[in-house]
Design brief:
Layout: E1 2-5, H1 7-14, H2 20-27, E2 31-35, H3 38-51, H4 57-68, E3 72-75, H5 79-89, H6 93-105, E4 109-110, H7 114-122
Parallel strand pairs: 1-2, 1-4, 2-3
């Protein structure tokens, strides 16, 4: 089975957040799938941590090295479909890309983002529960 994975779950694993083991257990043995935009989201997350002085540049580069080793299939998303989803659910495009992936591939979504979880549920997307 495949799993659509978002930035929050990836960041939690590579920065050793409390949900790391649960995320690893849920994803073990499954193909991870993400929209190509995930690369930019990961970069944005680390730039925010740098700006907030929560992480050093050296730490962020180590995390990026870990991220680059995660076996993940990057997929294209039809921007028109994503914009329709974004408009219908009143969400940002980055979240809509994940929901579009979940619809396209018919796989559950793994996220720690409460807003994305709610939007996905409202759009009939199966979620993998982390808590």
């Amino acid at each position: 089975m495949g799993i659509i994975i978002d930035t929050s779950a990836i960041i939690a694993v590579i920065t050793n957040e409390p949900h790391k083991q649960k995320l690893l257990n849920l994803s073990n043995g499954h193909e991870l799938i993400a929209p190509r935009s995930i690369v930019w989201e990961i970069g944005n997350a680390f730039s925010a941590m740098l700006k907030q002085k929560r992480i050093t540049m050296e730490q962020s580069l180590k995390c990026i090295n870990i991220y680059e080793k995660i076996p993940m299939r990057m997929v294209e998303v039809d921007i028109r479909i994503a914009l329709e989803i974004a408009n219908r659910l009143n969400i940002y495009a980055y979240d809509a890309y994940l929901i579009a992936c979940a619809h396209k591939y018919k796989f559950p979504l793994l996220t720690l983002d409460k807003g994305l979880s709610l939007a996905a549920q409202n759009d009939q997307i199966q979620l993998l529960e982390v808590e």
